[in-house]
């Protein structure tokens, strides 16, 4: 948010607060005036605050720029488009949030595993199909969840793997530092190979170096069509994997930023923008 705009909004808020307080201490007002003033005060209180109207300004937005980290290896949520730019559902969503907040959004494409530790220093926030976990909550605060997914298991065509038991002792590919990685580490006797790019894991699966890849539902489905006839993506519910919620991660304790982002997110849900992005980026894939 621009500094002058923030200052102006703060001034306007102070003035309206003074007016509101003033009306409560005035003793000798005519009944009519009192009623009018009361009505006006109610109107002010009832007026919905929009994302940009929030009086307090997060430090992260003070320079008018929201620096957002992502890992553009996770289609359809984030990928590098033909123009070489990070694109996808998450990128479009955070840009729409930035617009609501009146700030410019700059996207930094980095390794998924370094996102959480960079929040509050190198970046202001991250949007990366990131699952809310207790471990991550110890270091960052999350927005309200905007998507529910589950881990999928990508198998080579004709694989006999069908249950949680079948995964024991297998060679499993995952993306480094993801919830798929954490799940795989828990599987008895499994040999887990961690990749920076999920597509490299799928390539190794196709080349016979892995028995399966564990990755989130939507990228799994994108890879299934990209490697059509060679791999199948199986719902993780079949392997007893639990649903996961995606949210935007922000610096721990920056309640102002979290509140502003949540308000903007809700506005985008209410005005239909969110659903339009879901059909544009997720359902068409
Ligand atoms: N949802 C998974 C996680 O949070 C994977 C995210 C990703 O690879 N971008 O760990």
TrEMBL record:
Signal in keyword set: yes
Coiled-coil zones: none
Residue ranges constituting the Solute-binding protein family 3/N-terminal domain according to the UniProt record: 65-285
Region (Disordered): 33-55
Matches recorded under SUPFAM superfamilies: Periplasmic binding protein-like II
Signal peptide annotation: 1-20
PROSITE patterns listed in its UniProt record: PROKAR_LIPOPROTEIN
Protein name as annotated: Polar amino acid transport system substrate-binding protein
